[in-house]
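Researcher: I've got a protein sequence and the SMILES for 2-acetamido-2-deoxy-beta-D-glucopyranose. Could you write out the 3D structure of the bound complex as structure tokens? I'd like something to compare against our soaking experiments later this week.
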Amino acid sequence: QSLASTSVLSSLSFFPELTCSRPHDRLLSYWEDSWRGESKKLGDTASYTCRSGYKRKDGVTRATCTRDGWEPNPLCQEIPPCGTPPPLEDGDTKTAMKEHYSHNETIEYMCQSYYIMEGEPYKTCLYGEWTGHMRCLRPCIVNEDEMRQHNITLKSSGTKYLVHDEIIEFRCTRGLPMGNVAMRQRCNSGVLVLPTCRE
Ligand SMILES: *[C@@H]1O[C@H](CO)[C@@H](O)[C@H](O)[C@H]1NC(C)=O
Ligand SMILES: *[C@@H]1O[C@H](CO)[C@@H](O)[C@H](O)[C@H]1NC(C)=O
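Model: Sure. Here is the predicted complex with 2-acetamido-2-deoxy-beta-D-glucopyranose in place.
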């Protein structure tokens, strides 16, 4: 009993002598060298970075010399890859999709014809998650029957397909405009409000 506690005490007195030497870790891309090449003492810290594709443990910026060696252990961990990127409604990816994407990999999207993209066309795989947001805004199609019911027609002959934000102008086929819907309308993501005329 007394012998055991003596040996614990004597080993405790050695702890200040504990040092950590420069780690031989192939996943390190940078390691802060000790002053004059000396080993670091218990409680000392060292800044480091990990090779591409690997990262330090979440929230850790420096390694710490502990009784059990350098913490965190391991110093670097693999950055998780991303799976197949999410599909885009009314659009697609420019290149064929893969099953796995590595950290920092980017994929470009495009919209179907007549659809207008809102946002940047890229999604990026960051730490296992896809970031970046875009959507495809719908075109408007001018319907002859609907125009007839509203007693209107196109002011100038032109395409009946409008892309998002495109402006179109109507005129009355009978009577005068009524209500407060203007004769000039803007296509808003597939929605086009028709004015009405009446005698
Ligand atoms: C991600 O890519 C950017 C440039 O595209 C680069 O600056 C950065 O260091 C990369 N990050 C990682 C962890 O690979
Ligand atoms: C179109 O014009 C006719 C004749 O003035 C009218 O009876 C009808 O209500 C009009 N249509 C609409 C949708 O107002």
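Model: The chain has three domains: 2-78, 91-137, 140-198. Residues 52, 103-104 surround 2-acetamido-2-deoxy-beta-D-glucopyranose (ligand 1) (CB under 6 Å).
Researcher: Great, I'll pass this along to the crystallography team.
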